[in-house]
Amino acid sequence: MRADLTVVVPAYNEERRLGPTLDAIRAHLNANPGRWGRWELIVVDDGSTDGTADAVRAAAAREPRILLVEADERGNRGKGHALRRGVLASRGARVLVTDADLATPIEELDRLDKELSQDEEGLAAAIGSRAHPESSIDVHQRRVREWLGRLGNRLIRAVAVPGIRDTQCGFKLFDGAKARAAFADARLDGWGTDVEILQFFRRAGWQVAEVPVRWAHQAGSKVRPVDYFKVLGELARLKARRVRRVDLAVAALFLLASVLLYKGLWADLDSRYLADSGQDQNQWEWFFAVTADNVTHLRNPLFTAAQNHPDGVNLMANTVMLGLSVPLVPVTLAFGPTTTWALVLTCGLAATAVAWYWLLAKRLVVSRRAAATGAALCAFAPPMISHATAHPNFAVLFMIPVILDRALRLCGSAVPGAVPGPGDGKRVVRDGALLGLFATYQIFLGEEPLLLAAMGMLLFAGFYALAHREAARAAWRPLLKGLGVAAAVCVPLVAFPLYWQFFGPQSYHSVLHGDNAGNSPLAFLEFSGRALLGDEARADPLAMNRTEQNAFFGWPLAGLAFALALALWRRPLVRALTLTGLAAALLSLGPRFRVPYTEVILPGPWRALAHQPLFESVIESRVAMICAPVLGILVALGVDGVRTSPDRLARTLGLTAIGLALLPIVPTPMPVRERPEVPAFITEGTWRKYVAEGESVVPVPLPDAGNAEALHWQSATKPDFTVPGGYFNGPWGPDRIGIYGASPRHTSNLLRDIRYGAAIPAIGPEWRAQARADLAFWRAGVVVLAPQDNAGALRDAVSRLLGQPGERVGGAWVWDVGDAR
Fold first, then answer.
1. Which is more confidently placed, 646 or 781?
2. Angle at 372 between CA 371 and CA 377, to 5 degrees
3. pTM for the complete prediction?
4. pLDDT at 610
5. Around Cβ 161, how many Cβ atoms within 10 Å?
């Protein structure tokens, strides 16, 4: 038979207080039979080892509407399991779940019932809330326990059910049918079941109201403060179970693609080196190694003197990616910086693709296939692959889609074509705070990518406002408010690191990139050297180097983008995306550019930004990287649209055209080369006999942007010794202009020139005096010449400069110059 109300009480070892609890509930319901009608009270024994079941049977003998659901054979399973059994056994039009201790008195049912009955919007549940301003706490828990409970509840709300202030109060009244549907879907057995049920109601669009209640802490409560944090673990498992299989398959494919790209590197981490990375692999491995060394020795992670001795290096002013290099310190210490380097590149590319897939599937397209195609283009586009050979800060961009999603949340549903989330536009302060935290983390992953992303979002916002003014008017207030909150959160967190970057030791004001840093218009139509149909001979002349092939999308993809823009032009989203991509491409041409196949030089719009703060250090060709997500989104929209076409032939032709446009730019595996061995003089620690405290090891030639093997000496053996020179960004001259490497000195210039084939000049007293002065500045303890090209000429030059022949030690020529000062 149906009932009007079912009360469900989970019980575990509640023999002593269960009798009074059942009497109180029965008395309250019988006191007003006209209001509660036919009722039933279900007690679920959760594997008690005392007389709980006997107490229920005794009460049931006096009141047949009290029912016992006996423990199953597995014994105690947890509150969630007990509630699930009780609710699924219920027959009530409404279902109240309450704890056996009646910390919330049964009389508070009147409040919940009144809220559920009088609401005109069709509430599905009214839940007791101790956090409601009108609630009354008669007996508090101990202060520490209460504080931990509040912290745990805040964490639960942040990750699971934002907007509900108290998820764990054990007094909830549900619509019976909806409760049975929710508990039938539930999987958690522990305390996390409250959050799981509330999540189900939210996903179903069923309204939940928090109601103020009286509450009193009861001695002998089964809930411990640590249980709040166990709930987070249960929710993590729940989240994992709810991931679609297709999503897991897509993520696995992205990871497989990334592994295939770097298979040559992974094949032999000890001796393989990415051939196109120049000296950047040496630099990045050194970044990871020196960060691990700073962290383990509790030194300032923003500075080191291991390179550019004695002046040191401002690490915050370099691309150290503290957001990854610090968390991965255990990996670096256990397996070495080369493993960290390979792991960051491989997993970072895959994570970026997954993040774009998540954003596209959540916001822009229905088809998972469309989302995967667009995400693959966003993450594995030619400019991204170019940087993935040497610049993980420009390839590992998984936070950018997360930041974009949070910005869309602030806009609410004001972006037609983007699917709104349930909380969009409603929690501006919370979303703004999270945006600030996300931006903070991205700053510690890469500031220049964040600047470019901000440029792209600003361009899109401007063009979208022109394309859809009503949406812009609806979005600008919550967006600006959220951005203000984000700034209030982010600025204090990054204030000191940024102060150190721009005003600390070895800071600089801008970086010199030369006059050839813009894209050629032809670069957008050509294939990169690492694309499936790429040609190094055609691509190399159109870029600064292979790590800066920042366009190279190929003419088929350009043609496809043009066709998609025309076909979907009626949508404001597409118009804004198209104009954003065109503006970014134009800006990337630099302050001036040559019209292809002519001698005509035209000014570019970048000229207005070239000398502005922040922008003066940007390599302008990188602005074209904004085009990658623009094209990825357009392609995703195209695949999604073609997929829904009723004409089978049109679907086949459309998907074929998209596939043919993308095929030429599919990246090929990264080529590798053998890296030079580290001299035994370094690996065996023989250098320690020559270097006193405060002295440096001077490699020949000194490390610089063109030859940084000495950094590998440090990263392969831990940076226990210092070297002058190096490959980093640092100041030069009285204006502190940024350059790559240390400020040059006469001796370092001479050795570098000889290394690359210059003749040895006549070395007399002046050259020897200069060498002594430079060695004194570097605080040299030993000069080391490892096997390399032109090693004979270098050995001859150093011997003349120092007035001694040197000795062969540990596979290298060394000169003991500890007394040179």
1. 781
2. 100
3. 0.82
4. 87
5. 20
